[in-house]
Write a structure and sequence with these properties.
alpha+beta; TcpA-like pilin; 4-stranded antiparallel sheet
């Protein structure tokens, strides 16, 4: 009887070797998950860089072809005369400025929305030229949208800027490091605090602290 009890006691629980193997497997799984998340984030950053540079290239190619900036180009009759892809589109006021308040970057009203319509009608970016307002805005790799503004941002950053909403903290750090000076309050690349899952408009307030991976940002890059 004692012999049977001794055997049962020896068989209960896990040995140190078995526990070690389980811990190694868990470590490998966690490492794989973290590595996969990093790969996804790196892919998003690469796509965002391409979107910033691609939008700038499309806008300047448009200027080379038509002599005016997309969104500001006009009058409407001039656009309509270019062909069917321009039918129903509205021209800008041709004053040389992309008109629109900084807080309207993601509502795409007026010339801030015409910008995307004109680029699509000219064939420089994909999509339906008749999509208007928010529907005209391209999606960005972080689940937000892409907008434009010429409104002055913090510390006097003027000029036309391409903006992205809902950018992760790690994404903002990587983008600013690749495209500018790595600081959200200086240079051509600026950031303002955003809200996760929302298209938070950029603003003129100076980013008060260094980037944090725990935050979500709206980022803008002057083209």
């Amino acid at each position: 009887m004692k012999t049977l009890e001794t055997k049962m006691n020896k068989q209960s629980g896990f040995t140190l070797i078995e526990i070690a193997i389980v811990l190694v497997i868990i470590g490998l799984l966690l490492g794989g998950v973290l590595q996969g998340q990093q790969l996804i984030e790196n892919s998003r950053v690469r796509s965002a860089v391409n979107d910033f540079n691609g939008t700038a290239a499309a806008a300047f190619s448009y200027v080379d072809r038509y002599g005016r900036f997309p969104g500001d180009d006009g009058p409407t009759a001039t656009l309509t005369a270019r062909g069917t892809s321009w039918t129903g589109l509205t021209g800008g006021d041709t004053d040389g400025i992309l008109d629109g308040n900084i807080n309207a970057a993601f509502t795409a009203t007026g010339e801030l929305g015409y910008f995307w319509q004109h680029l699509r009608a000219a064939g420089f970016i994909a999509g339906d030229p008749t999509n208007a307002a928010v529907a005209a805005l391209p999606q960005n790799p972080f689940g937000g949208v892409i907008g434009v503004t010429a409104g002055v941002m913090m510390n006097g950053l003027a000029g036309t800027k391409v903006c992205m909403s809902n950018v992760t903290g790690s994404g903002a750090i990587a983008l600013d490091t690749q495209l500018d000076d790595g600081a959200g309050a200086t240079g051509r690349f600026r950031a303002t605090l955003g809200v996760s899952g929302a298209n938070t408009a950029p603003n003129a307030a100076v980013l008060a602290a260094a980037y944090s991976e725990d935050n979500v940002y709206t980022v803008c890059y002057r083209i």
